[in-house]
Specification:
Layout (H helix, E strand, L loop, with lengths): L1 H15 L6 H8 L3 H7 L3 H24 L6 H18 L1 H9 L6 H27 L9 H13 L1 H4 L8 H14 L6
Helix pairs in contact: 1-2, 1-6, 4-5, 4-6, 4-7, 5-7, 5-10, 7-8
Length: 189
C-alpha cells in the first residue's frame, strides 16, 4: 500500500504539482482513507522527501557501480554517468521532474537530507573529472568543480525537454553531450 501511495503521488505531483495536490486527492485516487495515508507518512512533506530520496539513492547506487569499475577509464565513467542520468529520464521521468521541480517545496529538515545526497552525486562525478585530469585523459587546466557542475547542468536539464521516443535515443543524446564536453563545438581542421 505504501508503494501505491507513492506511485499515485508521483503521478499527481507531476500532473498537478506538489502544492496543488492535497492528501485528500491522493487518498481518493488510491481509494483509501486519510488514516491509511498517515499510517505510512506523517505529512505530505515526508512523502515528498521519500520520493526525492528514492530517486537520488537509486542514482547514487548506479553511479557508485560505474565509478568503482576499475576496468573503465575516466572518459567511459563520465559517459556512463551521463547516460545514467539521461536514461533515467525514460525510466523515471515523473520522478525526475518532481526531483528537480519540487525541491523548493521540501521543508528545511527534509531539504538537508536531499542536498547531502545530491552533493555526494556531484562529488562522485567530480572525482571522475579529477581522476581524468590526473591521468592525462582531460586537460590539466580545467576547474574540476565548474566542469562537473556544467556536465550536471547539461544532463540534468534534459529531463525537461528530452523525449526518449523522439528524434534521438538516449544513447545518441549522451554521445552528443559527451562530444561537446570533451571536444567542444569549434570547427576542426
Amino acid at each position: 500500500m505504501k508503494q501505491k501511495i507513492i506511485d499515485t503521488s508521483i503521478h499527481l505531483f507531476d500532473k498537478k504539482g506538489f502544492t496543488e495536490t492535497s492528501i485528500q486527492d491522493i487518498v481518493d485516487d488510491v481509494g483509501v482513507t486519510k488514516g491509511t495515508f498517515y499510517y505510512y507518512f506523517s505529512s505530505k512533506q515526508e512523502l515528498l522527501r521519500d520520493i526525492h530520496l528514492s530517486y537520488i539513492e537509486f542514482l547514487l547506487t548506479q553511479q557508485e557501480e560505474i565509478i568503482n569499475d576499475t576496468s573503465k577509464d575516466s572518459r567511459i565513467k563520465l559517459r556512463d554517468t551521463m547516460y545514467l542520468l539521461i536514461h533515467n529520464i525514460q525510466q523515471r521521468r515523473k520522478s525526475a521532474r518532481i526531483f528537480f521541480r519540487e525541491m523548493r517545496n521540501l521543508g528545511t529538515e527534509y531539504l538537508e537530507q536531499n542536498m547531502q545526497k545530491r552533493d555526494l552525486f556531484r562529488k562522485n562525478l567530480q572525482t571522475v573529472v579529477e581522476e581524468g585530469i590526473r591521468k592525462g585523459d582531460f586537460d590539466e587546466n580545467l576547474n574540476p568543480d565548474m566542469i562537473t557542475r556544467g556536465i550536471l547542468g547539461v544532463t540534468n536539464w534534459s529531463y525537461y525537454w528530452f523525449n526518449p521516443e523522439g528524434e534521438l535515443s538516449e544513447t545518441e543524446l549522451t554521445e552528443i553531450y559527451l562530444e561537446m564536453i570533451l571536444n567542444g563545438i569549434n570547427k576542426r581542421d
